[in-house]
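C-alpha cells please, single chain.
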Amino acid sequence: MSHAAHLLTAALVLLTTACSSPSTTGDKAATTATAPAAEPRVAFKVDPSTSAVVSGRVDFAGQKPAAKLVNMSSDIECEKLHPGGKPDDAIVINANGTVANVFVYVTKGLEGLHFDASTTPIAINQNGCGFTPRVMGIQVDQPFSVTNTDPVTHNINPMAQTNRAWNYSQSPGDPPITRRFQQPEIMVPVKCNIHRWMRAWIGVVDHPYFAVSGTDGKFRIPNLPPGDYTIGAWHEKFGTQEAYLSVSPAARPEILFTFKGE
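Here you go.
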C-alpha cells in the first residue's frame, strides 16, 4: 500500500471514531438540566353535606382570681386613655362563669391533608395601649395585619421560635403592617417593647379548624370533615387541656372544657 493510501485509511478511522463517540458536552448538559418544578399541593375539599360543626364552652371552677389593674404609670398618654384604670386581661372570667380568650383547635386527626390558607387578613389592633384581640388564631401563609389606632407610638414584637421573629414600631397614622407566618406554632407570644404590659398570643395552624372562646365562653368550629380528632384548649395562665372526639357525618358534637382556679 502506498504512503498516500495509508494516510487516507488513518483519516477515515479517525472520522469514524469521532462520529460514533458519545457527546461529552451532551452528557454534561443532561446532568445539569433544571429539575422540573414540584407540582402545587392539592387542597382537600370538604363535602358540605357530610361536614360537622363542633361547638362548646369553656367553664371556670374554683376561686375566681382577684381583679387587677394594669400599671401604666410609665406613659401618661396611656393613663389618660383609662381614667379609671385598665383591667388586666390575662385572665378574663365572664359574668356567666366561663373563660374568655381560650384558643381551641384541632391538634390531631388532619395529618396528610392540605388546606389552602384564607386570603382574608387576620387583624390585630394596638388600641387603648393594649393589643386587641389578646388571643387569636391564623393559618400558615394567611395575611396578618397590624394597625395602631392609638395617639402614641407602639411596637409589635412577635417572639416566634419556629417562625421568624420580627419587630416593628408603628406611629399614629402609619399604614398597616402586613406579614405572614410560614410554619405552625402554638403559641406565638407578642409584646410591645415600648409598653411592657402589652401582651397578645397567636396560634398558627396549618388548617382552618380553630376558634377563640368569647365573652360568653363559647366557641364554634365549622365545616370539619368526619373523623377522629383531638381537640386542644389553650389558656395563657391555666395551661392546656385535650378532648377526644369521633365525628360522624353531619354531626353537631359539643365539648365542655373546665379550667380550675386555686
